[in-house]
């Protein structure tokens, strides 16, 4: 029996609402497969915790999470606590603290009716964005000079280390080779005359070791247009932290919205736990109403299962999501349905149990 220890960090707003549904799915799988078991521990960290304790997580929070096989996170950030504090002291702290330098964000259309783009079908929108997740524009380096004075100047410095840039690009080439797909680098060397010139050089250099991988290189502005107009150009994309953040919200938009987009924050060396979470945030505009779409969070459970080596279960979860979307019977309002978050989760469990996937 394989036993996986999962740390739950439901966080803020709709975070706990969608994480509850992902946990239901894992518990359903555990019932169907007697070779698997999941043990959960819940950490109450987030903005409410901050208001009570003046900190986003326990002082030894990173230490506490270290012993888990995975972290399952909902969302962080809520009005009342400045975003740069809440995110830096919890979400970004985990990503950086555990060297989760690979952010895997699939952009996959499950049903052509979900895309706002004309004449695009499932086969046209099916790619993987590999986002650098630890440094770059999110290095947190900068300065605030002459605050409040007329000479005021604010610096936000991007940091692109040789190690950080090379390892993400190499990871992407390995993935492209494994999947026999093309690899597109998205950068902006025409304007960012240090960081992106370096990025492009490293992409070219590492690419020499992978003559079998077909490559493309786009500027991020043009790439944003192609994401919308010709998404079929992309198979595997590698890009920097900020560009990857923005591009994957475009990715969500072309595949059905924030309620469907998933992401895995991976430490490939497995020295530390990886973290699985939806791409969306805490959605204060709909929090507490029980109408958040749990599918993004459930899809991140599929990514977690793949990470555990349970690829078969990962595929079952994604197939089940597709069936639910195709049926259009039990959906949340963002997808035109009338059902609640927990009704979608319950229906998912009912469908997956119907598959009787005993091992
Ligand atoms: P958001 O993703 O929370 O919401 C954007 C829009 O998408 C909203 O209209 C929201 O209702 C909708 N939406 C998001 N998830 C949905 C779901 N599951 N079902 C249905 N609709 C959904 O982005 P925002 O409003 O810019 O940010 C809100 C807060 O979340 C901020 O504090 C921000 O910093 C934080 N944030 C956190 C994460 C994270 O923890 N990974 C990600 C993004 C934003
Ligand atoms: C995301 C989020 C985070 C990011 C924020 C909340 C710091 O937008 O996971 O996409 O920019 O990485
Ligand atoms: Mn984002």
UniProtKB/TrEMBL annotation:
The keyword NAD applies. Belongs to the isocitrate and isopropylmalate dehydrogenases family. This is D-malate dehydrogenase (decarboxylating). Residues 5-348 form the Isopropylmalate dehydrogenase-like domain. SMART domains: Iso_dh. InterPro entries: ICDH/IPMDH, IsoCit/isopropylmalate_DH_CS, IsoPropMal-DH-like_dom, TTC_DH. GO terms for molecular function: tartrate dehydrogenase activity. NCBIfam families: PRK03437.1, TTC. It catalyses: (R)-malate + NAD(+) = pyruvate + CO2 + NADH. Its EC number is 1.1.1.83. Keywords: Manganese, Metal-binding, NAD, Oxidoreductase. It comes from the Bacteria. Its cofactor is Mg(2+); Mn(2+).
């Amino acid at each position: 029996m394989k036993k996986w220890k999962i740390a739950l960090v439901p966080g803020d707003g709709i975070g706990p609402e969608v994480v509850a549904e992902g946990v239901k799915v894992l518990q359903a799988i555990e019932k169907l497969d007697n070779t698997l078991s999941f043990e959960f521990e819940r950490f109450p960290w987030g903005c409410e915790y901050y208001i009570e304790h003046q900190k986003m997580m326990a002082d030894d929070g990173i230490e506490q999470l270290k012993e888990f096989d995975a972290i399952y996170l909902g969302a962080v950030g809520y009005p009342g606590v400045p975003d740069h504090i809440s995110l830096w002291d919890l979400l970004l702290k985990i990503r950086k603290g555990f060297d989760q330098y690979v952010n895997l964000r699939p952009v996959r259309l499950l049903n052509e009716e979900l895309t706002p783009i004309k004449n695009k079908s499932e086969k046209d929108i099916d790619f993987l964005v590999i986002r650098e997740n630890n440094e770059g524009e999110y290095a947190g380096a900068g300065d605030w000079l002459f605050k409040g004075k007329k000479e005021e100047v604010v610096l936000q410095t991007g940091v692109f280390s040789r190690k950080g840039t090379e390892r993400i690009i190499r990871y992407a080439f390995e993935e492209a080779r494994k999947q026999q797909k093309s690899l597109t680098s998205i950068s902006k060397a025409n304007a960012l005359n240090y960081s992106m010139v370096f990025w492009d050089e490293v992409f070219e250099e590492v690419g020499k070791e992978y003559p079998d991988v077909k490559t493309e290189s786009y500027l991020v502005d043009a790439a944003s247009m192609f994401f919308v107009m010709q998404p079929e150009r992309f198979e595997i994309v590698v890009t920097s932290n900020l560009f990857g953040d923005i591009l994957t919200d475009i990715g969500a938009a072309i595949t059905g919205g924030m309620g469907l987009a998933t992401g895995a924050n991976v430490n490939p060396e497995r020295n530390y736990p990886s973290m699985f979470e939806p791409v969306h945030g805490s959605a204060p505009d709909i929090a507490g109403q029980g109408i958040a779409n749990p599918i993004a969070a459930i899809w991140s459970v599929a990514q977690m299962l793949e990470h555990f080596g349970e690829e078969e279960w990962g595929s079952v979860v994604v197939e089940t999501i597709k069936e639910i979307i195709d049926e259009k019977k039990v959906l949340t309002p963002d997808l035109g349905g009338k059902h609640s978050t927990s009704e979608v989760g319950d229906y998912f469990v009912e469908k997956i149990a119907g598959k009787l996937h005993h091992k």
